Amino acid sequence: QLLLLMTSHPTGTKPTPDKEYNAFRLAKFRFDKGASVLVKSEEGGKDFVAKVTRIFTDKTPTVFLEITWYYRPEDTKEGRQWYHGENELLSSNHKDTIPVSTVNAFCIVQSLDDYNRIQDPITMEDGHGKKLTPPMFFTRSSYNVKTKKTTPKLKGMCICKRPENPDKDMSMCDECQMWFHHECLTEEEVEEDTSGKWRCPKCKNSSKRASKRRKNK
Questions:
Q1: Contact, 53 vs 66, CB < 8 A?
Q2: SS3 of 134, please?
Q3: Looking at residue 129, what is its pLDDT?
Q4: Omega before 152 cis (within 30°)?
Q5: pLDDT tens digit sequence for 176-211
Q6: Is the pTM of this model over 0.90?
Q7: Percentage above 70 pLDDT, the chain
Q8: In whole angstroms, what is the distance from residue 164 CA to residue 143 CA?
């Protein structure tokens, strides 16, 4: 389960905002409100991922962040499924307040469509010539920590009726426009025809039957 990192004020109470900011700097990089960040794990495992929704200081010099957590599939009630991509996250309604010192690095969280469109890693510069290639994630679902439910229900496709996994090779049939996982097909079925188009087994068989009927007339 996702480790709670709610940080209390030195006096034992939740920090009370005094001044608010639109950005903060860490290791010479600027982090704006709305940015996605990696948060250090107290258990030494994978960094957690969160979205910064508020930046403030209280009466002390400590900078605090109000954040909303992203969940990895394995941190949800249903666990990681076959269709979950390696870099898939679920947005959530789980909010916390953490000190800026727990932030490890910047990261990028995109929609699945944007994630699929990007071919090369995104490189950022800190203004001092230092370049950074932030980890990239995508999200297409939301996890409610109170009800333990994930929404929306992902659309099934292919022969198997399972949702898309962006890490798995797929082809779209040029005839019926449906998508199919390569691992659900034979090597012969994955191959394109001589025209350079690809048709799924069902459409290929339909064309063969139609052609045979025409020859029999």
A1: yes
A2: coil
A3: 65
A4: yes
A5: 999 999 999 998 888 887 778 899 988 888 765 444
A6: no
A7: 84
A8: 18
Does residue 49 contact residue 107 with C-beta atoms inside 8 Å? Answer: yes
What's the token pair of residue 170?
A: 């797929």
Candidates 153, 87, 141; CA nearest to 115 is 87
Backbone CA torsion sign across 172, 173, 178, 179: negative
Q: Which residue has the tokens 């959530």?
A: 92
Find out whether 156 and 163 touch, Cβ atoms under 8 Å.
Answer: yes
Amino acid (1-letter code) at residue 77? K
**Is the distance from CB of 43 to CB of 64 less than 8 angstroms?**
no
Residues 132-152 pLDDT 10s: 788 999 999 999 999 999 999
On the 0-12 / 13-18 / 19+ scale of CB atoms within 10 A, 137 is: buried
Residue 173 has a CB neighbour count (10 Å cut-off) of 17
For residue 57, list its beta bridge partners. Answer: 19, 63
Query: What's the average model confidence in pLDDT over 83-90?
Result: 96
Nearest to 15 by CA among 95, 94, 98, 93: 98
Tens digit of each residue's pLDDT (9 = 90 or more) over 41-76? 877 788 999 999 999 998 888 899 999 999 999 999
Contact in structure between 31 and 105 (CB atoms under 8 Å) = no
Give bridge partners of residue 65 from the DSSP assignment. Answer: 55, 98
